[in-house]
Design brief:
Layout: H1 3-22, H2 25-80, H3 84-158, H4 161-190, H5 193-219, H6 228-248
Helix pairs in contact: 2-3, 5-6
Length: about 250
């Protein structure tokens, strides 16, 4: 391989790679759709011209057909009137009209075929354009989705989940330590001597109240007939409890 060919290959390879980076697929597809749609009016104009030619030839054929019939009638009338000279002139015109009619009929046939082919080509182009447009829109949507996925991938690359996980673990450990310390303090507070003494005093007070209630019931005769000794014992116990309560306070 020559040096020049190698240089050309390197140049085109580099140019192609640069164009691939610069070229935006979405913009290219959108421009392609616009170009295809812009061609439709041009195709319609071309088809209209072909159809116009067909209709013009059709009118010429009708006119020539009427002319042939009219000349034939004039020839017959001239012959009946004995005017061979006039009949001969009309015959010359009839021959020319027949030649024109035959040529026009052939042109009309070609124009009709051309018109049908033009319409078919236009319809095929429109169908193909619609198909290509749908494909292009799908590709554009896929390109946008790919772009979003690329952005998400880049975001995920820059997002270090390990840092946040360590932060959560550190905060969880601190909170657990505070909860444990609070529970320990509560347990120590509830098991202290002062707390136990308060419980004893509260229970003693409850006993004194119960004893007083029994004494009142005994005095009121609600507990039945008891000995005077029992009543005195209850009264004495009640007084002793009062004295103990007063000394405790």
């Amino acid at each position: 391989m020559g040096l020049w060919m190698r240089i050309k290959r390197i140049f085109f390879a580099g140019t192609g790679a640069a164009l691939d980076k610069v070229e935006n697929p979405e913009m290219v597809l959108q421009q392609t759709i616009r170009d295809m749609r812009d061609r439709v009016p041009e195709l319609n104009s071309s088809v209209a011209q072909v159809m116009a030619t067909e209709r013009l030839l059709g009118k010429n054929k009708e006119r020539l057909s009427e002319q042939v019939v009219d000349l034939d009638s004039k020839i017959k009338a001239s012959v009946k009137m004995g005017r061979d000279d006039i009949a001969t002139a009309y015959i010359g015109q009839l021959q020319q009209a027949q030649v024109d009619l035959e040529r026009t009929s052939l042109q009309l046939e070609h124009a009709t075929n051309a018109s049908q082919q033009a319409l078919k080509a236009r319809d095929n182009y429109v169908l193909n354009m619609q198909k290509r447009t749908a494909e292009a829109l799908q590709l554009i949507s896929a390109s946008k989705q790919a772009k979003l996925q690329e952005q998400l991938a880049q975001t995920m690359e820059t997002f270090n989940i390990g840092d946040d996980a360590s932060t959560f673990n550190e905060m969880r450990e601190k909170i657990d330590r505070r909860v444990a310390a609070a529970e320990a303090k509560l347990q120590l507070g509830s098991s202290s001597v002062d707390s136990q003494m308060q419980d004893i005093e509260r229970e003693a007070m409850d006993l004194q109240l119960q004893d007083k209630l029994l004494a009142y019931k005994q005095q009121m005769g609600l507990l039945g007939n008891g000995s005077e000794k029992s009543s005195k014992q209850i009264s004495s116990a009640s007084e002793d409890n009062d004295d103990s309560f007063d000394r405790g306070n």
